[in-house]
Amino acid sequence: MIKTNEDIQTLNKQALLYSKDLESIMTEMHRTIIGQENVLEKLILALVADGHVLLEGMPGLAKTLMIKTLSDTIDASFKRIQFTPDLLPADITGTRIYNQHTGQFSTKKGPIFASFILADEINRAPPKVQSALLEAMQERQVTISDESHTLQKPFLVMATQNPIETQGTYELPEAQVDRFMFKILLDYPTQKQEQEIINMIAGTGIPDIRKMISPAKILDIQNFNHLIYMDEKIVKYITDIVQATREPGSYGLDVSDFIEYGASPRASIYLALGGKASALLAGRGYMIPEDIKRISKDVLRHRIILTYEALAEEVTTDKIIGSILNKVPVP
Questions:
Q1: Nearest-angstrom CA–CA distance, 218 and 43
Q2: 175-184, 194-203, 297-306 — which one is most confidently predicted on average?
Q3: N or C, which terminus of the chain has less Cβ within 10 Å?
Q4: CA 260 to chain centre
Q5: CATH dotted code for 228-327
Q6: SS3 letters across the chain
């Protein structure tokens, strides 16, 4: 429990040390990923907060390379799962196999048993398969037949979906999307960045990634993230933001006709944990309101359900979140 300024100073010193470790990961990732600073930063924040990421963007924007590079910098295992309409839950979690020579069953673990998972085009698989992945994300364990297997740590899932294709896809239910800490929108690189990408790929090629940190150190950082000081004023600020998505009229917002359902309690939890991770990345042992603002859109954009009127008038969740942040008093 934080009692004195000395406690804060102690947290600051440790946060500064850990922030240098995280910065080394980002620097190494930038050797292969040109631009996309916001996405890489949010990946790091999700890792520190022990959450998962849903990434939405056009094909060819290095989504696979991002998560693979992150796993390489941490010397951790990586598996890519290509979601297709014929995929089965056992293709993800694993199954029991009968050996006719020994007369015994053995467990064949699926690709979910890795520290970093890329669930590529998650909306191409039917709901039963999506649920198998999302259950593993939430419970951090997999049950195969009558055996429960704990997933290794750290464990981060980055799922991708294509925003323009609807043929042969299955939209993720809101209750399942809610299990992702962040929903990040990936945009095209700038022309200059694209020129750098061409020169790298067509020239020297993608450089080999150096291992910058161990999985054990990541677990230490995740544990320390919970110790970051969060004042009661920050807690109220978080709940005010989330409450404004449910009762916008109480905060002087004229967007009630656009919101069908507000954000869930997971939004408050992830704003707190993500805000702590933001403070840690900045080398601080305490949170400030800017840490919350920094991640609000990524935490809330998939948790606010819009009405048909909002869709008809092209009102986006990001616009609503922006209005909320402008209206809710900052402590």
A1: 13
A2: 297-306
A3: N
A4: 24
A5: 1.10.8.80
A6: CCCCHHHHHHHHHHHHHHHHHHHHHHHHHCCCCCCCHHHHHHHHHHHHCCCCEEEEECCCCCHHHHHHHHHHHCCCCEEEEECCCCCCHHHHHEEEEEECCCCEEEEEECCCCCCEEEEECHHHCCHHHHHHHHHHHHHCEEEECCEEEECCCCCEEEEEECCCCCCCCCCCCHHHHCCCCEEEEECCCCHHHHHHHHHHHHHHCCCCCCCCCCHHHHHHHHHHHCCCECCHHHHHHHHHHHHHHHCHHHHCCCCHHHEEECCCHHHHHHHHHHHHHHHHHCCCCECCHHHHHHHHHHHHCCCCEECHHHHHCCCCHHHHHHHHHHHCCCC
Give the integer Cα–Cα distance in Å for 19 and 167: 43
- What is the pLDDT at residue 169? 61
User: Residue 290 has which token pair?
Assistant: 């800017």
Topology given in CATH for the domain delimited by 32-213: Rossmann fold (3.40.50)
- List, for residues 255-275, the tens digit of each pLDDT value: 888 888 888 899 999 999 999
Please tell me the pTM assigned to this model.
Answer: 0.89
| Residue listed under structure tokens 């993800």 | 92
